[in-house]
């Protein structure tokens, strides 16, 4: 009887040790695999939520700050003279509105400086209004002090009172000095043709041009797109949409760090 007991104990001791070691080893490797799986799953979940929740839109897209210098023109010519009607609060409203429109791109316009700049050649603008020569954009560009630009290491907005007498709502000049390798800037008005505050989306449209976006085709598919020209019969009045391709182009231009060059 005792021999049997001893034999059982003799057998059981190593068997138990082996079983114990196997269990420990088994549990260890199980934990390791599970751990890797858990890590992988949580990363996958994070990726999923990044593309689907508003919360992650904020965390993944914040950070593409675009420094913008605002040049408010002062002049005797009412058309050019934004300085006498400009207010900080209205400018903030315009920039905030543009940032809302640009939110899908992750680019956030940050006004780093507002400067009052005297117009350099008002006569040329009068001439452009009266005769159409030179073109309105060229006449406006001649009024900008190139040495005051933030570009090419940032972006510039030239603010005038109105652009409508020149035949357009806003403009992007890809070079402010024809024939010279000068940076570009947008020209945006504070007032529309009837004297009411200009539409924010039109400022955003010019910013879009400065970020390399051309006009969309004049097709119904683009009726709600920010970059559809107002000359298109399908253009929705409140269009602010951006396509995936446009968003990628804006982000690529942001990475360059300044406005798109002519022909770029
Ligand atoms: Zn345009």
Instruction: Tell me the structural class.
Output: alpha/beta
Query: What is the terminal separation in angstroms?
Result: 97 Å
Number of helices, where a helix is a run of at least 4 consecutive DSSP H or I residues:
7
Instruction: Bin the strand percentage.
Output: 5-15%
What is the highest CATH level, the class of the largest domain? Alpha Beta
Q: What is the CATH topology assignment of the largest domain?
A: Collagenase (Catalytic Domain)
CATH architecture of the largest domain: 3-Layer(aba) Sandwich
Could you estimate the helical fraction of the residues in percent?
40-55%
Hetero ligands: zinc ion
Largest sheet: 5 strands, mixed
Mean of pLDDT:
82
* Uncertain ranges: 1-11, 15-59
| Strand line-up across the major sheet | 2-1-3-5-4
Order of helices and strands: HHEHEHHEEEHH
Shape: globular
Please give the domain count: 2
Short description:
This protein is of the alpha/beta class and 264 residues long. The protein has helices spanning 2-50, 54-61, 88-102, 122-131, 136-141, 200-210, 244-256; strands at residues 64-74, 107-118, 155-160, 171-173, 185-189.
Fold and architecture overview:
- This protein has 264 residues and is of the alpha/beta class.
- It has two domains: 2-56; 64-256, Collagenase (Catalytic Domain) (3-Layer(aba) Sandwich), CATH 3.40.390.
- It is built from seven helices and five strands.
- The protein has helices at residues 2-50, 54-61, 88-102, 122-131, 136-141, 200-210, 244-256; strands at 64-74, 107-118, 155-160, 171-173, 185-189.
- The chain has a five-stranded mixed sheet with strand order 2-1-3-5-4.
- β1 (64-74), α3 (88-102) and β2 form a beta-alpha-beta unit.
- α3 (88-102) packs across α6.
- The radius of gyration is 31 Å and the shape is globular.
- Zinc ion (ZN) is lined by residues 205, 209, 215, 229.
């Amino acid at each position: 009887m005792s021999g049997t007991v001893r034999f059982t104990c003799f057998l059981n001791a190593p068997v138990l040790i082996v079983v114990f070691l196997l269990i420990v080893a088994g549990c260890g490797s199980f934990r390791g695999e599970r751990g890797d799986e858990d890590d992988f799953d949580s990363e996958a979940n994070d990726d999923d939520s990044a593309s689907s929740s508003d919360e992650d839109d904020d965390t993944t897209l914040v950070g593409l700050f675009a420094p913008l210098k605002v040049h408010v023109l002062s002049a005797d010519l009412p058309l050019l003279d934004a300085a006498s009607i400009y207010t900080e609060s209205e400018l903030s409203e315009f920039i905030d509105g543009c940032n809302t429109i640009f939110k899908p791109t992750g680019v956030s316009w940050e006004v780093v400086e507002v400067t009052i700049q005297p117009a350099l050649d008002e006569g040329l603008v009068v001439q452009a209004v009266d005769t159409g020569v030179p073109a309105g954009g060229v006449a406006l560009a001649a009024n900008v002090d190139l040495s005051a630009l933030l570009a090419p290491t940032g972006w510039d907005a030239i603010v005038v009172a109105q652009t409508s007498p020149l035949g357009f709502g806003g403009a992007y000049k890809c070079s402010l000095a024809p024939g010279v390798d000068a940076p570009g800037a947008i020209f945006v008005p504070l007032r529309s043709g009837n004297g009411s505050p200009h539409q924010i989306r039109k400022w955003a449209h010019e910013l879009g041009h400065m970020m390399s976006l051309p006009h969309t085709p004049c097709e119904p598919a683009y009726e709600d797109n920010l970059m559809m020209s107002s000359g298109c019969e399908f253009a929705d009045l409140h269009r602010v949409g951006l396509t995936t391709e446009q968003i990628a182009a804006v982000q690529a231009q942001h990475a360059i760090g300044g406005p798109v060059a002519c022909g770029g």
